Amino acid sequence: MIYRTFLLAIFLWCGAAQAEVVVFAAASLKEPVDALAARLENVTVSYGGSGTLARQISLGAPADVVLLANPEWMTFLAEGGHVDALTVVDFASNRLVLVGPAAAADVTLAPETLLDALGGGRLAVGLTSAVPAGIYAKAALETLGLWDTLSPHLAEVDNVRSALALVVRGQAPLGVVYQSDIRASEQVRALAVFPATSHLPIRYQAALVNAGSSDAAAFLTALTAAEGQILLAEAGFLPAVVASE
C-alpha cells in the first residue's frame, strides 16, 4: 500500500508545474492547509497518515515541505537526513476527543460506560503503532486504565480522517480523533475529551525537504506566520506547544 501511494505521489509531482511546491501533510490538516494553498500559487498537497508520509519521504518521494502530527516521525526524518533539521518547527497543537453521532449523549471515560456506548461495535482509531492519532489514543487509553477493556474492540485505520469517516457513515459507533476533525462533519460531535495529561502533547511539526526551494520556504513562512495561524485556529487547532525535553 505504501508503494502504491508512493507511486501516486510521484505521478502528482511529475504532472505539476515546474515551480510547483509539493507539500506532504497529515490528514487532519486538510482544511487549513487547503485554504492556505489556495491563497498561494503553485502548491499541491498530498494528505495521509504521518507515518506513511514519513516513510515515503525516506524512500525519496519528491516533497518540498512536510507537515506531520507527531514529533517522533519528524525526528526519524531529521536523523536520516531526509529533511533540513534546522527548519523543523512546531506550528500547532490539538486535543484528543471521543467522537460519536451528533444526537448521542455524552460518554464517561470508564470501561463499562464505553462498552455500553459501543453496543457491540468497534472503536475507530488510527493505527496504534504508526498513525499519530492512534498512538495518542493508545497512550490515553492505557493511562486511563481502558486499554485492556477496549483493545479487543478497535477498528484501526490508516489515518485519523478514515477513523472519523467510519463514525460519520455509521460503521463504528465511536471513534478517537482530534478536536479539529469534528468540524469536518455536522453528523458527529465530541462526546468526551481525553485529559491532556493522559498522553504526550499533540504537536504538529513542519520542515523543508527541499531547503533550496525559495517557494517552499515561503509556504513554511506563511504557515507559521499570522496568515497560517489564523487559518489553523479557525479550523479548530490550538497554538503550538513545545514539550519540555
Describe the structure in your own words.
With 245 residues, the protein is an alpha/beta fold. 38% of the residues lie in helices and 21% in strands. It is built from ten helices and ten strands. The protein has helices at residues 2-14, 30-39, 50-58, 71-79, 111-118, 132-143, 147-150, 160-168, 214-224, 226-234, and strands spanning 21-26, 43-48, 65-68, 89-93, 96-101, 123-126, 154-157, 174-178, 188-193, 203-208. Strands 2-1-3-10-4 form a five-stranded mixed β-sheet, with helices on both faces. It has a five-stranded mixed β-sheet with strand order 7-6-8-5-9, with helices on both faces. Helix 2 packs antiparallel against helix 10 (226-234) and helix 3 runs parallel beside helix 4. It is globular, with a radius of gyration of 18 Å.
What order do the helices and strands come in, and which of them pair?
Elements: H1 2-14, E1 21-26, H2 30-39, E2 43-48, H3 50-58, E3 65-68, H4 71-79, E4 89-93, E5 96-101, H5 111-118, E6 123-126, H6 132-143, H7 147-150, E7 154-157, H8 160-168, E8 174-178, E9 188-193, E10 203-208, H9 214-224, H10 226-234
Parallel strand pairs: 1-2, 1-3, 6-7, 6-8
Antiparallel strand pairs: 3-10, 4-10, 5-8, 5-9
